[in-house]
Amino acid sequence: MEGKLAARLDELLRSVSPVDEDAARDTQKRWDSLAKPLKSLGLLEKNVAKIAGIHGSSRVDLKKRALVAMCADNGVIEEGVTQTGSEVTAIVAENMAVGSTTVTVMAEAARTDVFPVDIGMATEGCLLEGVPKEEGELLSRTLLPRKVRRGTRNFAKGPAMTREEALRAVLVGIEIAGRLKAQGYDILATGEMGIGNTTTSSAVAAALLSQPVEQMTGKGAGLSDEGLQRKIKVIQEALENLKPDREDPMDILVKVGGYDIAGMTGLFLGGAIYRIPVLIDGFISSVAALLAMNLEPLSRDYMIASHVSKEPAGQLILDELGLKPMLCCEMCLGEGTGAVAALSVLDMGLTVYHRMATFDDMNVEQYQPL
Ligand SMILES: Cc1cc2ncn([C@H]3O[C@H](COP(=O)(O)O)[C@@H](O)[C@H]3O)c2cc1C
Ligand SMILES: O=C(O)c1cccnc1
């Protein structure tokens, strides 16, 4: 089975092609024609042009947007690396359907549909193979059943997942990106919910970048100083014992990752496969983006960085991706909150792009820089 899944992923990745540079260039040309100082809306201009390149058209439209929140549990929480337990993952995931979590409230303000996905929560429920895929459209505000397993194994005791499970979770992300594109969505925002997923993210980041664990690790959703030291030690020991292969991103994901990270990696790859822009959220989401870039370098051209997480490695991961964030608000919440916040800023950029007067409209000569 693992071989079949790996072959399917390879086949999908082979279909990735570069963005449409002409559409991006035409879009920047329109920006340059607007009656304002050249390039003065900075990343708003660049990201609208980037989206044009991805959509293949300078008539950029972001009317339909979706936030996909990958929800999963992490066996490593047995080691006391979090303040709360996996019951909180379940409560917040359920509340994503009801509309009462932070991100769902923000998403409503940003006119964004929310698709929570159970990709590996510890709750009871059928596993992925046992559930027939929904016919027709995916429904927002409904917890999508895509459970790969009831939480990962504790990576302090052995690999978090099997390669087959990792591939399944990545393919779930790709499948969802493809279906939402087919449903007419113009952009995807990534989000997650999974107690313990800053531990897995720090472990993946340390392994992928060969960086010291203490520089990659923060307090997540809230830990004492003592708890943080324990978290660092658990990650250090796991990396020493499991020795994930730096040259094999899938091996890192298998040994110290999580199903939520794998699912988001799939969303980023799906963005490149189905040509739809995908917003990176905070630390956890950016680690998934980095895995995606390592699996398929072109996928980076389909990603947009929203904000810098307050977690210590937030900026470093974005630097590694070579992407600049639109916002710096000291947020460290996850769920997709930063990605949705950035959508509102992108909207403003897009309104200017479509509505603002050009130098021609005003019968004014376009000035040239002196
Ligand atoms: C009530 C609550 C709501 C959340 N919403 C997002 N997270 C965030 O915190 C978790 C990661 O932090 P750690 O690794 O320390 O567990 C993730 O679920 C992330 O989305 C939350 C955490 C809590 C407690
Ligand atoms: O930046 C994030 O994604 C983050 C940081 C801390 C807790 N949850 C999420």
UniProtKB/TrEMBL annotation:
<dbReference type="GO" id="GO:0009236">
    <property type="term" value="P:cobalamin biosynthetic process"/>
</dbReference>
<protein>
    <recommendedName>
        <fullName>Nicotinate-nucleotide--dimethylbenzimidazole phosphoribosyltransferase</fullName>
        <ecNumber>2.4.2.21</ecNumber>
    </recommendedName>
</protein>
<dbReference type="GO" id="GO:0008939">
    <property type="term" value="F:nicotinate-nucleotide-dimethylbenzimidazole phosphoribosyltransferase activity"/>
</dbReference>
<dbReference type="Pfam" id="PF02277">
    <property type="entry name" value="DBI_PRT"/>
</dbReference>
<dbReference type="InterPro" id="IPR017846">
    <property type="entry name" value="Nict_dMeBzImd_PRibTrfase_bact"/>
</dbReference>
<comment type="similarity">
    <text>Belongs to the CobT family.</text>
</comment>
<dbReference type="InterPro" id="IPR036087">
    <property type="entry name" value="Nict_dMeBzImd_PRibTrfase_sf"/>
</dbReference>
<feature type="active site" description="Proton acceptor">
    <location>
        <position position="335"/>
    </location>
</feature>
<keyword id="KW-0169">Cobalamin biosynthesis</keyword>
<keyword id="KW-0328">Glycosyltransferase</keyword>
<comment type="pathway">
    <text>Nucleoside biosynthesis; alpha-ribazole biosynthesis; alpha-ribazole from 5,6-dimethylbenzimidazole: step 1/2.</text>
</comment>
<keyword id="KW-0808">Transferase</keyword>
<comment type="function">
    <text>Catalyzes the synthesis of alpha-ribazole-5'-phosphate from nicotinate mononucleotide (NAMN) and 5,6-dimethylbenzimidazole (DMB).</text>
</comment>
<dbReference type="InterPro" id="IPR003200">
    <property type="entry name" value="Nict_dMeBzImd_PRibTrfase"/>
</dbReference>
<dbReference type="InterPro" id="IPR023195">
    <property type="entry name" value="Nict_dMeBzImd_PRibTrfase_N"/>
</dbReference>
